[in-house]
Amino acid sequence: MPYYLQLLRGALGVELAQITPVIGILLIVGLVTAIFQAALQMEDTAFSLLPKLLAMIAIGLLGGVGFMQGFEHFATGWITQAPSMVSQSWR
Whole-prediction pTM value? Predict the structure, then answer.
């Protein structure tokens, strides 16, 4: 497999590994909010948006550094491999 395809595969893997917990948490918060709204028969859009917004802010404040470390590790590896990537055949 060419090296650029390995880099693309690694980038997509890092992205999915970093974003999957965020999407899972927001999915659970949205589901709980929807169940709560259905139980109380509320149709307020602000109530459905506010818990997800607060959850996203909490994820960013509490876990943002951990997410960035994964991207930083990938970028550092990519930069250190740049000389070998330039000197190889791209076919």
Answer: 0.69
